Amino acid sequence: MKKSFLSACAAIGVFLAAAAAVFALFSTYTHSQNGPCYLTPIVTDARGWDLYTIENGTRRALEPEELLQIKPGNTFYLSRTLTQDLEHDGHTFLLLGTNCPWAVFLDDHLLYTTCPEADLSMDHVIFPDSYRGLSARSESVRCTLPANFAGRTLTLACAHETDAEYISMPRILLSSEALESELSMKNANSHMIPAAGFAITALILFGIWLFALFHGIRTPHTLLLIFAALLQTFSHLRQYEFSSPASTFLDTTLSLYIPAVSMLLPLTYLFLEIKTARNRILFGIIVALSAIISLIAPTAGQFGGLPFYSPFLESNKVFYVTLTALLIFSIIETKNPVFSERLPGKCRNNQEINDFSTPSGTTFHFCFCNKNMAIL
Hints:
Jelly Rolls, 6-stranded antiparallel β-sheet, 4-stranded antiparallel β-sheet, 15 strands, 18% strand
């Protein structure tokens, strides 16, 4: 028994090592250490900008939180000296938010504007109230910087839209074509690689199921795992849609149920594989409760969402409880005397093992220990 236990541990260790190696390999294609330089000011940090307005020809310095208090249509300014580090890191253009008008000046010279009909005199920029930003999804205003911009003064003139539903900080990033291409590929890979992995898993399981069926071995429970893998594939494809302006057939209300159902199916498979009647009843109750709880959030989403915020319900953390219960029941079953080490043809209590074949061809092995039948 000790030797078989060590062999099992070794096999599990090899599998985990192989899984970790594959995960580490593909994770390098889904995450990037590089990214744009975020210069968007926040309430507690100006991010290196000199913030000010100009009133009657006089500059009035602003604190970051005061940007949110400026009346829509009134111009405010952000100014800074571009450092050598920013140029050395390969940044070549500005990415600006589309929800407000912009005028970009470099050393007091107009470099770019999204509102050419405005009065664009330096230190006296006036945007018309009729300006409306771009409403296209995932769009940014792009302004290419000239070569050797280090040491030069960048000044941005901006204003909140007059009919904006809410006022936010102006979005400002420094990036480059290489960085944007890398981020696009990493973002696509982070969804498509897991989707392809689950699809291949479903295909392999389906092939094994067909092979077993061809040899007269019926394992209908395996179909649950196949369906769960396919649902995970569709789930990752749907997540890709959120980062793409395109809309596909997966963008349906039923797709809200995919995360919960794709986790319930493997649990149902494991529930059906539990042999001890008492453990099956208890685990069945836990799985049923998990199913009810996990389906509350997507169902409520059809009617406007939950009346309260519950990260426990919306993130399906209830399945952590279910998996913990499954682990406990698995340990209990392995300690069942009937499942312990036994002689060939006999159980641990040295009772004869009997065979019973069903009409479908399934064979059950059972014995009578302490006048109780236990299926092996």
